[in-house]
Amino acid sequence: MPAEASVGGKFVKELIKQYLDNGISRRKLMRGLGAAGMTLATAKTFVNSFTPTPAHAAEPGAIHPATGTGGMLYMQQLRAAGVEYVFFNPSTGDAPFYDAAVNMPEIQLIKGVQEGAVVAMADGYARLSGKIGVAHVANVGLPNAMTQLVNSWKDRIPVLLTVAAFGTALSGRDGPQDYDHQETMLAPITKWLWLAENAVGIPDVLRRAMKFATTTPSGPVFLSIPDDFLRATATAEIFDGKLFTVPMRIRPDAKDIEAVARALIEAKNPLLSAGDEITTAQAEPELLELATLLGMPVTMCWGSALNCWSKPFPTTNPLFIGAYQRQMGFPGAVDVHFVVGDQIGERTYNGATSISMRSDPTALARAWPIDMPIVSNIKLGLADLIAAVKSLATAERLKSIAAARSARAQAYHAAQVKMRQTIVKDIGNSSGITMERLGTELEIGLERDTIYVSECDSGRNMDPFMSFGGADKTYISTGPNILGWAQAASFGAKLARPDRPVVSVTGDGGAMFGGPQPLWSQARYKAPITNLVVNNRSYNNERNRIWSLIGGEQYRAGLDMTCYNGSPDVDFTKAAAGYGVEGEIVSEPAKIQEALARAKRANVEGRPYLLDIHVEREGIGAASEWHPPFSIADQRTRKV
Amino acid sequence: MRHLLLIAGLTLATASAAFAQTPNADPFPPGDGHDKVAVACTQCHAPTPIVTMRMGEAGWRRQVEIMILRGAQIGPDDIDRTATYLATVFGPGVPLPGPVKEVHLAAGSGAELVQTHCSLCHSLERVVIRHRPGQQWAAIVHRMMQFGAPVDGTEADQIVAYLEEHYAAQ
To answer: What is the ipTM of this complex?
Structure first.
């Protein structure tokens, strides 16, 4: 029993007795425990310890009947699947869900104030918890939700998105908020979608939706339920989550694995590219063991961080050599390129034999041809490969191979570290905050086990100055970089991992896309998150890319027609304050640490905090603050 | 719509960078550093941004460092050589590719400095095409000096004064 349970002594015992005798509801019990001095989290753990949840109460694989509204059946099916949180924003048709929630304390409702934020919160929760993220949004706000669902789709994140659609008597009549077959909009960005056909079938379509979402390769699914079905009463079967949890413990063919092991042992100059499927499979230890065993240099992502959302290999490991490219000065002429769970890593390395192990058979060898494609559960496949390598060569031989290979990789890695120090030295006299300086300061100021939730494109320049993976910070981003994600996703991350520090990192562009709506949820639910807005008043890298990659008239004329975000110069601390989140502006390099310390203090006390960090713009056209002048006020002929 | 267009822009930029191809003709002049630039820089983007820019060694060095942080494989021993190469073959005074529009500056003290120095790296059309707030000219000239514009402090002050007088936004 937790120490807090003794608070209140007899009072607590009496409460528990009443609860077990069905004299009071669970909600009333929780309230009583709170009054006795327990925190919500402790009370929840405490009550769960003697309360049989439906999942525990049911036999493994049980199906039990239930009677209620469609909304009640839906919520009961979520509960039977072990869902603890539903992220939502309210709309009229959804009411039966929330009527059911009144007496369902096992499911905590988490409110967001815009559909994109709701989905991004569910997405962040799913990425960090490994569980499905469940989001209910207003039917008319579905397009808002879709923007963030693209991140979930491209990164194969299990998110269930549900709407209460127009009732069957009204849909298809071109009502003010109705458009035909809206669910088909979701087709390109979901793994599966369905329009519920009656009330009695709601638990079954929900079961299918969750099965599709969570079965590897996972991904978002969409469920549209006409609101008259949610209000109708029916008796239906509720399915225990075990009945649709597909383990996907698929091992690769032993002969294939032996061939890969042989190729990696005999390779003259192998390269390993690591991707997000490793993170999803929690196969980081196996990856590290294999790379170390064979002394293989490891790359992650492409172009610093595009096309990947995690860093499954420790960036401080001497075998880590940076981003993948199809032709690299080091390790040079690669003869065997081994890709593990990595979409962009499959891009053909010039002259190398390609081997790719993927858990997603549809993605494997899709973008580029692969010499040796292997479908496998990544964790099991790597474990089998390690065993095969050890069976094909003596420990002494492997040690010799690894020593020769890793010596080169270690020398390269060390040179990279030295070079970053040189770069920092080069910008050392800058009076403003550069990305390099900020990265260096964050490496000093953030806790080692911080979950770093980033969508800042300019911020990728500071990533090399920080340590990620292994025992260091956990890096979470999105492959497609659809902005407006990080502040909301960090909320989901904190919910999934409440005992780890969480930092969100957005540019000013991203903060304006997705903020400050997620700050409302952070304040409402007392989510201790440090929000960093890396503010250069520009879509800085967008301008750099437009000018440099495309060239064109803007570059020739030196006119930035689109990317300057100043005028007005947004004060993100004022926006945060309006939403109940404290914050401060940081504009001097020497003040970063003390600001981080204040943010940390607020987090320790259970409050979110925001740092609006004014950083320098970089690149061509960076000094210009010109933007196309236009004033509606000047268009007037009447001053009204 | 603006929201969607920007998202599309992000995606487009990513896609175009990811699938950038090196043209057959070598756009990089020979020199010590050619091979490093020809390979390392074209892994992620076309040669265009390099061959159309003109900067001094300090400017190129900064650009090289930024690219390294974004994944370019240029080693510590190659930074100086790469920056020197780029400043030599694409430095101030190296003719810009394509036609350059002839521009007549407003007469005044400092016009000759602008004519002489600013045109070393870019068309003068860039200078005169829009009037800008006074403090903006100072920031831009300062940034140009960081990029390697061959002007000293006195000349920079004269250039700023000229631009503020003749090309300042009202």
So the answer is: 0.73
